[in-house]
Amino acid sequence: MLKLHNVSAGYGGIDVIHNISLEVTPGQNLSIIGANGSGKSTLLKAMAGLLPYKGEITLNGTSLRKLKRNNIATQIAMLSQISHMYFSYSVYDTVMMGCYAHTKKSLLGTPTSKDIAIVTQCLQTVDMLEAKDHDITKLSGGQLQRVFLARTLAQDPSIILLDEPTNHLDLKYQIELLDYLKTWAVENNRAIVGVLHDINHAMRLSSNVVAMKNGRVVAQGNDIINRRLLQKIYATDVAKHMKQTLEIWENIE
Hints:
Elements: E1 2-11, E2 14-24, E3 30-33, H1 40-47, E4 53-59, E5 62-63, H2 69-73, E6 76-79, H3 91-96, H4 113-125, H5 141-154, E7 159-163, H6 171-188, E8 191-195, H7 199-205, E9 208-213, E10 216-222, H8 227-234, H9 238-250
């Protein structure tokens, strides 16, 4: 589906990620872990075709460089941390924008009955249908992120790239988002690539992990997470911290 071969990318002519090769296959999810500044978000942007890059990225066998932006958008969607730069649209209209990746009509065009059904279903999925007429500038951070998830689903991509999407979400919605997306990928033979700050969330999303440090992949594969690897990429004893946290929870009834 999506293949990277010796990919390097960055900003202002300076590479942040270096010689990365990996493959995203249908029906399988991928978690990317690493400390802040390790290049995780830069990697996602390159995968989405949002950054110039060296090396090769192919989508279903076609070089990403040969695809137009709207062609990429029909197959790859990105759900990021909440941006505060957004317009005053209704919840419904914001989600409807996801449908336009697959059409040639303008944003002022009349939605089809299929578009309306898709948007309604996506809003129900994220429990925001009752708020469909609300102005998104009036929503809480958690509500807004759920609206953006609904818009991403309405885009009906083959691959969803997640860049810290659980920020601003209550614990209930964090768990529901990850579990829903895991099911969505398997049932629809799609794929999720998740950059997740919370290691528990990364492991919940997928056992297939890419571990990064200083812009490079230091390990990748299934069930690779261990104490030594976490110490290497986070420069702290993550396993010890997790076990201490578990002891606290075991005493709570």
